[in-house]
Amino acid sequence: MTVEQTLRVTSxxxxxxxxxxxxxxxxxxxxxxGRVQDATSYIVVKATASVLGGSRVxxxxxxxxxxxxxxxxxxxxxxxIAETQIDASSAALLRPSGEHIVAFMADSPAFEGIGQVKxxxxxxxxxxxxxHHLDAGNVAELAKILKPDSAxxxxxxxxxxxxxxxLQWLQAQGFDLALGRKVLQxxxxxxxxxxxxxxxxxxSFCATWRQADAxxxxxxxxAMDDPRRLQGxxxxxxxxxxxxxxxxVLTSKLMDxxxxxxxxxxxxxxxxxxxxxxxxxGLSNGSFVVGPxxxxxxxxxxxxxxxxxxVADRLTATVPALLHIxxxxxLLLAYEKxxxxxxxxxxxxxxxxxxxxxxxxxxxxxxVGKTTVLKALYNVYDRAGISVTQLALxxxxxxxxxxxxxxxxxxxxxxxxxxxEGSFDERSVVIVDEASMVDIITMSRLCELLGPAPRLxxxxxxxxxxxxxxxxxxxxxxxxxxxxxxQLTVVKRYGGAIAAAAAAIREGRWPxxxxxPEAAIGFIPCSARPLDSAEDAIPETVLHLYRQDPANTxxxxxxxxxxxxxxxxxxxxxxxxxxxxxPVEVWDQRHEAYARVGFHLGDPVLCTRNLWDRxxxxxxxxxxxxxxxxxxxxTNENGEEAGLALAWVDWDDGVRRPIxxxxxxxxxxxxxxTVHKAQGSQWPRVxxxxxxxxxxxxxxxxxxxxxxxxxxxxxxxxxxxxAAVEREPRAQSRQVALDLHIVxxxx
Length: 747
Fold this sequence. Notes:
The mean pLDDT is 86. The strands form six sheets. A six-stranded parallel beta sheet has the order 10-9-11-12-8-13. It has a five-stranded mixed beta barrel with strand order 1-2-3-5-4. A five-stranded parallel beta sheet has the order 14-25-24-15-23. By secondary structure, it is α/β, with parallel strands linked by helices. It has four domains: 3-96, CATH 2.40.50; 102-257 and 268-297, no CATH class; 319-492, P-loop containing nucleotide triphosphate hydrolases (Rossmann fold), CATH 3.40.50; 506-746, P-loop containing nucleotide triphosphate hydrolases (Rossmann fold). The chain is 38% helix and 24% strand. The chain is built from 28 helices and 25 strands. GO terms for molecular function: ATP binding; single-stranded DNA helicase activity.
């Protein structure tokens, strides 16, 4: 039986589910005046893209929906909850959400005191007529909803800052709130004019090509071969290249990317012959740059030039040696005696080089003594009166750096967050560890903050993982002959089978590994999804191996999805190891019951974001050691409420901290983590499930193997891993121009 209902959207469950458009949303039944008919009732609506007619569903909108209702049973904390779902056969937008004007008032300092709640009350009361009342200065009408002084304030602020035409235009064009807010903040009252001149300016505000192109073609009548469209397509291609990690693209490669933007040529639209003209015309709008290095997104070029200038300034600077060479050697001999070690000639040379040059790279594989060099070098800096700042990309790497050197270390993100420009001079040095993973965005911000004065030492291994973000820094710098490089090759941390296998993998040779779970390094072959029930599968094999020594073992994965991915393995491990343990729960107001959050007593957990106020960093690992019977209110040192503790975790820095509800989106199970999260860390025993896929790479295998102190077991498809190791690393196919910019500046 088909029903028809007027609904107000309360929340979005899934926008564009399965990537085919449409929306699944929750809504309250309302009458024609917008009054909620039953405060306890809600309806879930599933609507396809064709039913929605291209409109984007947003909270606050009113829709008239028709369709077949059905009842669904959900289980929450052991209780079955019934909800009504309508598969919409038709849907009509009755009233837009008003999110643009609500956000405009709530965000603007001129409307101080008029937050989201009051602004939304005005929209709910007046709808589109709110614009008329604001433009006409109808304080009396607004005073029916707000207090008279607040109503007067809104009118006064609107006179100075309001813009009905722009806000209504954004709403009429179906801009989502985030995009509309960016455009409005940048262009202000000129928004309509600027977008009418060139709708493809939207690409600069993270609009998708489909959004910008649809608006340009349908609303502004832009032709297929309009120069603005072709320039916009080139800009979009540059963004796609940048998102893939490249900072520069040759014209031949650009044409391939453009085909994914514009589609194949047709008899009526032969765009390839028009691109060269569009490229030259595009220089005038500043969205991309054409040079001897190919086409570069403007932002990528600016960042690479900034890094190149910082490097070139240091390479060409005339600075005296920190100490006389005899003093350096005296310090090194004293260090050897104090530490009861013997530095090899490469390590001696690395210290001498860093004591002489204001910019140096210290490179080498795992276990070659890079940290030993730093500790020796710091004695030289101390004697010369140079202050040392230690930085690493990941929280765990910074923690290990601090433990290894006995000096404070910070993540680069925290340093950038708290640092002040101009606070570093010639009497300071900044050491960046794990530099192979530093991208150009991070490095350019670091160079900007530091300025040209302090010395800079980058430490890392180009054979390890390349940056997740765009560009290459350490890899590119090693290609510049003028950059001083101290390369360490003698493995000191460990020997034996792990060292030999790691060295072979680093060089692109696949070592012969035993299928022995007791070996120092072994490869246990098994299938991802066995055809024969007698065969062992990767997940079950990894679980079996993990059970042999869980306290000292970490699972490292190449990816998040798939049978060898963190998601499936974490779910399997929890089901096998802690399913019967006490669950962590939070109160679900909608269902008035406790709901499980996905963690149990005894589960390892991983923090996936820097939570500075909680003392946690991206990559922090811990174990749930206590679960509250009921959430317990915490207070800070001033006696103020600080959130409800759901459970307690012993973190890897030795501190026990509470899990509060606001942290849940930033925590996940930590039985298995990605190799990227593990860079800079080590564990006694490491298990690495591996299959053939696009992320499989020599550097990934090498990084995973070198995280082990005592034993590493590889599990999965040996032929696929062997092929990945023997191929060139993916970093070599990443197109960048940083090295070329440095060479050009040094000329």
